[in-house]
Amino acid sequence: MQLYNTLSAEERARLIDEAGKERLTLSFYAYAKIENPKKFRDELFIAWNALDALGRIYVAHEGINAQMSVPAENFEVFKETLEAYDFMKGIRLNVAVEQDNHSFLKLTIKVRNKIVADGLNDETFDVTNKGIHLKAQEFNDLLANPDTIVVDFRNHYESEVGHFEGAITPDVENFRESLPIINEQLQDFKEDKNLLMYCTGGIRCEKASAYFKHQGFKNVYQLEGGIIEYARQVKEEGVESKFVGKNFVFDHRLGERITDDIIAQCHQCGKPCDNHTNCANDACHLLFIQCDECKAIMENTCSTECHEIIHLPQEEQVARRKGLQVGNKVFRKGKSEALKFKNSGDLSTQTLAKAKPETKDIRQKIKVKKVLIGKGEHYYSKSKIGQFLIENKELSVGDKVLISGPTTGEQEFTIKEIFANGISSESAKVGDQITFEIPFRVRLSDKLYKILED
Ligand SMILES: [Zn+2]
Ligand SMILES: [Zn+2]
């Protein structure tokens, strides 16, 4: 019985594209007593792997916390796999507002000590004595009350791109740090203020609200289902959004736009921007905000040092990484002195710019007819020339193409000139090694598609 992933992210992305089926990005969690987390984990893996469900899931004696991507056509069957467990009957699934078929490319289910690293000793307080759950409109109403203090229980990189008006946004790198900081800061308000809290999907507040009640706060409230569910109610029930900007999420999208306000800056040039990325240097992987211009100039790296490193031969990069543990982490969530425009701590909701309307709606994106032509082999960054191998059909000058990959994303442009096997040509056929100018960096194994006009 296969109990672990066998496909690479690239292979999975290709299979998803070829299947051309719509997927749903969703999340859910449940606190419950689980006797045998390892057995529970294996059961879930077998059931979900069969449904082509992907995601990052943590299970522990205290419950389950899941972020997933599920084929839309398997959604009902997927729900049944949850309902098979008593504690997940009627569970609310937070379905993302913006969809992306590549939000998760692996099914990873891990057994952990806790489903959220909160650093709390659950034996010392009543974890079931939680704050009152609020729906979006109720949350807005309480937010408008002058006796309310609203606290963002997420981390600096999350609140930087979007948060509620007037929220306290602790300058922390993890949830564990924020609990004592807030407790200390709000010492004098335990009796007579409303403590209103929120996080991404609600799970952090389940525990935090119980902790603060135990600390003596009298009026504790939490946003039910977090910002994800709030955004859904804003969209579907016409509730006014008091959340400004983007909701950061930990999948390949790195954020879901709630309002078109951009409240953050490119960490390198200061221009209004709220697109997170991770440094292309495998030994760094720092999570930071970078605009398209800086991305092109810096080739997706966070510093001149990292920029130099990615141009070293692969063997030397590997040798330099020896002993460093960051290489296999997806993101490093720290800060860097090199980033001049990084903001944290006291954040405003002042709009620096408006986001352009998103044209790449996933439903439209799927409808684009395209055919896989070949794969990326090399990118000559000085001359901005990409090299591809044609494996299917042919490619001609004037063709519109789409280049797609986990780091590259999806980029479209029109071919103006082709060199096939080193010779300037009108078109290229299967087996040809082609090069052409391309304004962004392409990676090994990026897919080259020809877009078919209809
Ligand atoms: Zn910039
Ligand atoms: Zn870096």
Structure notes:
This protein is an alpha+beta fold and 454 residues long. Among the domains are: 9-111, Alpha-Beta Plaits; 368-451, Translation factors (Elongation Factor Tu (Ef-tu), domain 3), CATH 2.40.30. It is 24% helix and 27% strand. It is built from twelve helices and 26 strands. It has helices spanning 9-19, 37-50, 75-83, 136-143, 156-159, 175-185, 203-214, 226-237, 292-298, 304-309, 314-321, 362-367, and strands spanning 23-31, 54-60, 63-71, 94-95, 107-111, 132-134, 148-152, 162-164, 194-198, 219-223, 243-247, 256-257, 261-262, 276-278, 287-289, 353-354, 370-380, 385-390, 394-396, 400-405, 409-414, 418-420, 423-425, 427-429, 433-437, 447-451. The strands form seven sheets. An eight-stranded antiparallel beta sheet has the order 21-20-26-17-18-25-22-23. Strands 4-1-3-2-5 form a five-stranded mixed beta sheet. The model is unreliable at 359-366 (pLDDT under 50). The site of one zinc ion has 8 residues, from loops. One zinc ion is lined by residues 279, 281, 284, 286, 301-303, 306. It catalyses: uridine(34) in tRNA + AH2 + O2 = 5-hydroxyuridine(34) in tRNA + A + H2O. This is tRNA uridine(34) hydroxylase. It comes from Epilithonimonas zeae. Keywords: Oxidoreductase, tRNA processing. It is an enzyme of class 1 (oxidoreductase).
Give the strand tally.
26
Helix share of residues? Answer: 10-25%
- Radius of gyration, whole Å: 24 Å
Query: What's the overall geometry?
Result: globular
What's the CATH C level of one domain?
Alpha Beta
State the distance separating the first and last CA atoms.
45 Å
> What is the CATH architecture descriptor of one domain?
2-Layer Sandwich
Contiguous low-pLDDT stretches (5 residues minimum) are 359-366
Family: Belongs to the TrhO family.
Catalytic activity: uridine(34) in tRNA + AH2 + O2 = 5-hydroxyuridine(34) in tRNA + A + H2O
GO molecular function, one term: oxidoreductase activity, acting on paired donors, with incorporation or reduction of molecular oxygen
Pfam families: Rhodanese (PF00581), Rhodanese_C (PF12368), UPF0176_N (PF17773)
